[in-house]
Design brief:
The complex is a heterodimer. By secondary structure, chain A is mainly α. Helices cover 72% and strands 2% of the residues of chain A. The termini of chain A are far apart. Chain B folds into two domains: 132 residues, Rossmann fold (3-Layer(aba) Sandwich), CATH 3.40.50.300; 75 residues, no CATH class. Chain B is globular and about 60 Å long.
Chain lengths: 622, 247
């Protein structure tokens, strides 16, 4: 009994940190409607900055707490700087580009932190006067955690007072409710947004700074935290502070007790919980329907079918790609094989995101499921390469069929979070089901058949299968299936009023996209000879989304071009410098600022302008 | 002979009875205008008829088949076409593709993954666009059209479903006066040619009294008058509702 009470208390301590970070995220989202991936990075920066300050001055209570507060303020200023330099230029861009930009910031902060503080875990000083523990019902409990438990509700009260008793707070609440109306009433949006970014980021920084005495500071804190904070925000209801508080408490307890009851699936529990909440309460515990943002984008010009010239261009490109092994060495072929596989992955996501208007944060699940499906068949059933490759899309498609049934019940950001939940569930099962998947040791020895063992032959095989699938996806986009999907995206109201079952179409698209990603995963497994749980982790999902957005949502050739650009950049940057994330992040930020339509979209409008047409009747170029 | 028969339709939101005991019948080729002050229940009535809302009670029969409680896409398949108060078209498609998509849906061809949609039902779509006067703009993206043109595209899309009942929610709102007359004359001709029943709401009284065969007046969810335009115009209750001289 006593033991459980202490477990309950440690759940509360976890909840306090979660609340600090997610309250910042929910306030930022409520006002700016930006899905701020960089929020976890600010949490991490808070921890690093506080570590440095506390190392220097932290042996006295004023020094320690001064350091913590100074770290929070520093991070808040960085958040405000991000708003002024980057986000402010993007409020009129599609929401996905804002997301992409914040992801660029994530990469930049990653490498900046690694450069400033080094890659090793840093153990911080404990808080003076709070080093010991107290007896709680005969069990020791850290004093510091007790302080956190008290701090959580205090911060909630302070924030509620701030939002309900000050003019600034009233403006923030008004903007959360109706951004356009607030702007129309003459509120200075720029100032409001900058100050909100300051407050939100400072809260994240405070959350990070307070972690220094509890756990080692490292470079993985950002992604782990931002995903959990998103779960809290979505469960609580986007933009709702009390919602974030209650959700933090629930998830803190879930983690504290989940480890006792279901030690095998601790990682899954939180995401299962979120999935259940979203299916039962579509807008979270305290959310209102109008807070659900459309994650899609305003429709662009009509897709243009292949003209004879575009068909020729594609064939020439394909022939050129097929001829590469005549001139290139193994290294180039390995990179190119990966590019082709990623082009397939990105194009499969584009079916969902570009044509269906559904943004998935979890597309890596199907990529990984395909890879593991093929690898397990090879290892456990001794299957040859081709049957294993054929199984990859089936396994992934089946997984997507099941997950898709749940996911398409919601739209916008809630759909995205459900896909993230399913991806995390698939990832956690793979990671924790050691007996079958080998956990993070992965599965090794998944090599191609003898006839395909040379890099050149495997490359040609990849080109054939991926190219063929890309062609099928392209046909599907111009077939009635693609029209029905776009109809649902453009106007669900009209689509339902002319007999189109939008949800069913989206479900089928989800499944098809999953199957194609699964094939990409199978190809990837044999290309590398091994599979690891990282294949289905969040960064891969984000990479896929980045590729789609880089290339441009409104063109079919975009995702493939985006994949080539992204992977090429990544590979080159990795070769040239250890700080490749920094380079990549900067490139993403610049691209987002310079080409809000994506690279291919930009090339197309350039082409249209040169031809003097408005784009409606021009020759197809892609 | 009546194509549409509505009996005792009702729907409440919370404690507000938005539509309360509305009954009427509508024959082939007939235009019925549904009018009333703001909040009278016109839009709710429309949304009940096409299935966006479920009625609390009452029956809606089209050619003898019950529609009440079915989802919009089923009701559409049973022959109810609709244009919206705020136009809803597929903005990323061309005008012709919009109509083709409806035709593909009607012929249950939307699962096709292979044959390009652009070549399917092209002539049929073009004929419908010609009929509503949008034939020359078939290649333009819907996203760039003027509002009045979008209303015509919506009409063509509704016709593509070959409806027995056409619901038009403020069909001429936002149009120039000349355009209004043109669109309503076209609608009346289409209703006559296709033996289609047309129910429309409208704020422009010239349009209502110029084109409706009959008028149904709602006030606070209840029908207060029904009949030929001349009779409705003379009805003291209608005058009271519109002119505010409480009887």
């Amino acid at each position: 009994m006593d033991f459980y009470f202490v477990q309950f208390l440690s759940g509360l301590a976890t909840a306090a940190t979660l609340f600090l970070v997610s309250s910042g995220l929910t306030v930022i989202f409520g006002v700016t409607r930006i899905v701020n991936f960089a929020h976890g990075s600010f949490y991490m920066l808070g921890a690093y900055v506080a570590w440095s300050l506390v190392e220097r001055w932290g042996d006295t209570p004023p020094g320690f707490w001064g350091g913590v507060l100074l770290a929070a303020v520093t991070v808040g200023v960085l958040g405000a700087v991000m708003e002024v330099v980057l986000l402010r230029r993007l409020y009129r861009s599609p929401e996905l580009f804002q997301l992409l930009a914040t992801f660029g910031v994530v990469l930049i902060v990653q490498d900046a932190a690694s450069w400033l503080w080094g890659p090793e875990d840093l153990l911080g000083r404990r808080a003076p006067l709070l080093r010991g523990s107290v007896e709680v019902l005969g069990q020791p409990f850290p004093l510091y955690d007790l302080m956190l438990i008290v701090l959580g509700p205090l911060v909630l009260v302070a924030l509620l007072l701030l939002f309900h008793r000050t003019r600034w707070g009233t403006l923030v609440r008004a903007a959360t409710r109706d951004r356009e109306m607030t702007a129309a009433l003459g509120v200075d949006q720029a100032k409001l947004f900058t100050s909100v970014l300051f407050l939100g980021s400072a809260l994240a920084g405070l959350g990070g700074a307070l972690q220094v005495p509890r756990e080692a500071v490292n470079l993985h804190m950002d992604m782990a935290m931002v995903v959990e904070a998103f779960v809290v925000v979505v469960v609580g209801g986007m933009g709702s502070l009390p919602g974030a508080f209650v959700a933090s408490l629930l998830i803190g307890q879930l983690q504290a007790f989940g480890i006792l009851v279901f030690p095998q699936i601790t990682l899954v529990l939180v995401f299962l919980f979120m999935a259940v909440v979203l299916v039962l309460r579509p807008y979270g515990l305290f959310g209102r329907p109008e807070e659900g943002p459309p994650a899609g984008e305003a429709p662009g010009p009509p897709l243009r079918p292949d003209g004879p010239r575009a068909a020729t261009v594609s064939l020439v490109l394909l022939a050129a790609l097929a001829a590469v092994p005549l001139v290139a060495g193994d290294y180039a072929l390995i990179v190119l094989t990966e590019v082709v596989i990623l082009a397939l992955l990105a194009s499969s996501l584009h079916l969902l995101t570009g044509l269906g208007g559904l943004v998935s944060f979890g597309h890596a699940a199907w990529f990984g499921l395909g890879a593991y499906g093929a690898a397990l068949l090879v290892r456990d059933a001794g299957a040859p390469m081709l049957p294993a490759l054929a199984a990859a899309p089936l396994v992934a498609g089946l997984g997507a069929l099941v997950a898709g049934w749940f996911c398409v019940r919601r739209s916008g950001l809630y759909f995205a979070m459900l896909t993230l939940a399913f991806a995390q569930i698939v990832w956690s099962v793979t990671f924790q089901w050691y007996a079958v998947t080998g956990g993070d040791n992965g599965i090794l020895g998944v090599w191609p058949a003898d006839w395909a063992s040379s890099k050149a032959v495997y490359y040609e095989l990849t080109l054939l299968l991926a190219g063929g699938t890309l062609w099928l996806l392209r046909r599907a986009a111009f077939a009635p299936f693609g029209y029905a999907l776009r109809a649902g995206r453009d106007s669900a109201l009209r689509a339902e009023a002319v007999g189109i079952d939008v949800r069913h179409r989206q479900w089928m698209a989800f499944t098809l996209a999953g199957a194609c990603a699964g094939l990409a995963g199978g190809l990837y497994a044999f290309a590398h000879g091994s599979v690891f749980p990282t294949l289905m982790a969040v960064p891969v999902s984000v990479d896929a989304l980045v590729m789609v957005l880089l290339g441009g949502l409104r063109t079919l050739a975009g995702p493939a071009a985006g994949a080539a650009l992204f992977h090429g950049l990544e590979t080159e940057a990795m070769r040239l410098t250890d700080y490749w994330r920094l380079v990549l992040g900067l490139v993403i930020v610049v691209l987002v600022l310079a080409f809000p339509q994506g690279v291919v979209g930009f090339a197309r409008s350039l082409w249209d302008r040169r031809r003097g047409g408005n784009g409606s009747a021009a020759e197809p170029v892609a | 002979m009546s194509r549409l028969v509505v009996r005792d339709l009702a729907r409440a939101f919370g404690g507000v009875q938005a539509v309360d005991g509305v009954s009427f019948a509508l024959g082939a080729g007939e235009l019925l205008a549904l009018i009333g002050p703001n909040g009278a229940g016109k839009s709710t009535c429309f949304n009940l008829l096409n299935g966006q809302l479920r009625p609390d009670r009452g029956s809606i029969r089209l050619d003898g088949r019950e529609l009440a409680g079915l989802p919009p896409r089923r009701i559409w398949r049973l022959g109810v076409g609709r244009t919206f108060q705020i136009t809803a078209t597929f903005a990323s498609m061309t005008v012709r593709e919009n109509v083709q998509t409806v035709l593909l849906s009607r012929h249950r061809c939307l699962s096709g993954l292979w044959r390009p949609a652009a070549s399917r039902f092209r002539d049929e779509a073009q004929a419908l666009l010609d009929r509503v006067g949008m034939g020359t703009q078939a290649e333009r993206p819907c996203g760039v059209l003027a509002y009045g043109d979008l209303k015509r595209v919506e009409l063509a899309m509704a016709l593509a479903g070959d409806p027995g009942l056409l619901l038009m929610d403020e069909p001429t709102a936002g149009m120039a006066p000349g355009e209004r007359q043109e669109l309503m004359a076209l609608t009346a001709a289409l209703a006559h040619d296709r033996r289609m029943a047309v129910l429309f709401t409208e704020h422009d009284m010239d349009v209502v009294f110029g084109y409706a065969d009959r008028i149904l007046v709602l006030d606070r969810g209840r029908p207060i008058a029904e009949g030929a335009p001349a009779a409705v115009r003379a009805d003291p209750r209608v005058r009271a509702v519109y002119l505010g001289d409480e009887a």
